[in-house]
Amino acid sequence: MRTFVLIVLFLLSEAIGIVFGELFFHLYLKAIPPMAHSDFNAGASRLMHDLYGAGLGVVIFLWALVGMGTGSLLRRPPKPQAK
User: Fold this and answer.
1) Residue 1 has what DSSP assignment?
2) Would you tell me how many other CB atoms lie within 10 Å of the CB of residue 21?
3) DSSP code at position 60
4) Consecutive H or E run containing 77
5) In a designed cystine with 49, which of 25, 36, 42, 56 is the match (CB 3.0 to 4.6 A)?
């Protein structure tokens, strides 16, 4: 079950990262005038923005793992049962 949760967390983190990459790519297209870029520049920029988004997804995943680990460390240990 834990492996399934980690896989889903990774996939969701990557999806969020790629959405941010696409968002920044569209901001790039709006910021650069059409005369200033070619199809090659737009394609290369899209690739780099998608790679940036994938890297961001990995960072989000790692931060989530740190948060999960910290949360488990901060939990109080169970009280010992009296004999």
Assistant:
1) -
2) 22
3) H
4) none
5) 25
- Give the residue from 49, 51, 73, 69 showing the smallest Cα distance to 61: 69
On the CB side of 20, CA atoms within 13 Å amount to 16
- Report the alpha-carbon distance of residue 65 to residue 69 in Å, rounded: 6
- Distance (Å, whole) CA 58 – CA 62: 6
Q: Position 70: which residue type? A: T
Which one-letter amino acid corresponds to residue 15?
A
1-58 pLDDT tens trace: 889 999 999 999 999 999 999 999 999 989 988 888 888 888 899 999 999 999 999 9
**Is 34:78 a contact under the CB 8 Å cutoff?**
no
What span, in angstroms and rounded, lies between the C-alpha atoms of 63 and 20? Answer: 16
In terms of residues, how long is the chain? 83
Q: How far apart are CA 25 and CA 4, in angstroms?
A: 31
49, 22 Cβ separation under 8 angstroms: yes
